[in-house]
Amino acid sequence: MPFNIYDFSGTTKAIDQFLYAKMPPTWAFITELAIVGLIILLFYAVIGLYLVYLERKVCAFMQNRVGPNRVGKWGLFQTIADLIKLLMKELITIRKADKLLFNIAPFIVIIASFMAIAAIPFAKGLHAVDFNIGVFYMMAVSSIGVIGILLAGWSSNSKYSLIGAMRSGAQVVSYELSVGLALLSVVIFSGSMQLSTIIESQANGWWIFKGHIPAIISFVIFLIASTAEINRGPFDLAEAESELTAGFHTEYSGIRFAFFFLGEYMNMFIVASLAATVFLGGWMPLHIGNLQGFNHVMDFIPPIFWYFGKTIFIMYLIMWFKWTFPRLRIDQLLTLEWKYLLPINLVNILIISFIVLMGWYIK
Amino acid sequence: MNSVGKYFSDIFYGLKSLWKGLMVTGYYFVHPKQIVTQQYPENRKELKMFDRFKGELILAHDENNFHHCNGCGICQLNCPNGSIEIIADSVPNEDGKAERIIDKHIYHLSMCTFCALCVKSCPSNALAFSQEFEHAVFDRNKLTKVLNQPGSRIKKEPKEPKAPKPPTDTVPKSNPAN
Predict the structure, then answer these.
(1) Which of A206, A258, B56, B59 is the most exposed place for a label (fewest CB within 10 A)?
(2) In chain B, which residue's Cα lies nearest the Cα of A70?
(3) Which of A65, A323, A340 sits opposite B37 (nearest CB)?
(4) Residues of A whose CB is below 8 A from B28
(5) Which fold does the domain B56-156 belong to in CATH?
(6) pTM over 0.90
């Protein structure tokens, strides 16, 4: 299949060679790490801030409101103003709190999402690391965040925080299963865990189309389970504002609170981009089989737009869920996982394995 | 078999009801015209409050500067936090009898909780709420208002021939006189 999609690995290779030619290898390596870290840090901050803005706007429109509209045009700088306010707030340390864990917890949450963002392919050849076990890595790293949440709840020395953290622990541990099994279905289809290979395998159609109904089922299960895993409504028992004031981050103030907040939104971004990558083809334009003309037209839209379009679409779905459904009770939450999602998922995996064995999916 | 059927019907019924909810919010999301938010400082000119809105207490005056307050002081008695002060005066009426009239109906907006007990208890329906709501001032004294306008008088209703009054009425003869 002819490809005229721009490959970023050429650019990154050129920068790599330039650095290694100018500096001793150790320094070149360190410089590369610094550049990648800086870019991801900036990307993280900008995306995080604008996700908060987007969420507030989407929520407002769904509730017949206007949302932030005073700071800048359409309130575009509202979240930046909020960030500046949070930066200037006092960092209150709680008496009898476990100081070390209390201070470490926000960083664990934010580092977990940093590590996950490194493996996301934004366009052809545009990713920090391309593991051959990319899907596995993403799952492993994104579930580190729950340790931060548990630590935050434990070290705050507050009942609200502790209850929130315990709920969050029970929730994330059980929903991790469904997330993993839903991702496994696409791993079976594409025969690889490497994210770039999974995307290449969708060059003649996305897995959600090629994999028939089982792929759609696992996509829906992935959406539900990942919404629960990132502690967002309707599964936001961990911070249930109406019962636990703010759950695990009740006692945090200032920029530490902002870290939790940012981490939560970035987890949503990561989950959405993982869903986009695995089920909707990531940066791969919409290709239908071997319709060369149509595929060629689609190739004119740059992959980075495809990637962000799909990610924003899935984030919109997740926000739509949050602002429509009421919060579940803890027993309803666990019933949904253990009695519905998990059995359906296991049967689904069996069916998918059978389909792949017989070669019934669209190749 | 029945329980298996229930399991799957539960799933489909659940998905159906969730979809119904999603449709409601989705409809609002794609219809921004339905937004009900009032953009206050911008729409100040055309902003119209509802009739039931309690802006501030007023003593209703008609175009000839007449009001209905006879200075009885029931509103002052009913006010739970003392934001109404009645200063009444007595002037002789046509018969030469001393009659109680209102001199100053003083209203402390800063103490008012807008409970509307005064409006409800007023026997002659003289009090009302206006829709004015921009009360911010730099001087607290400006929040103390005199509600009866200067030169205003009580409006005397043309006395309708009343039903026979109870005998306890002290001035039975004054009825036909007016």
Answers:
(1) B56
(2) B39
(3) A65
(4) 61-64
(5) Alpha-Beta Plaits (3.30.70)
(6) no
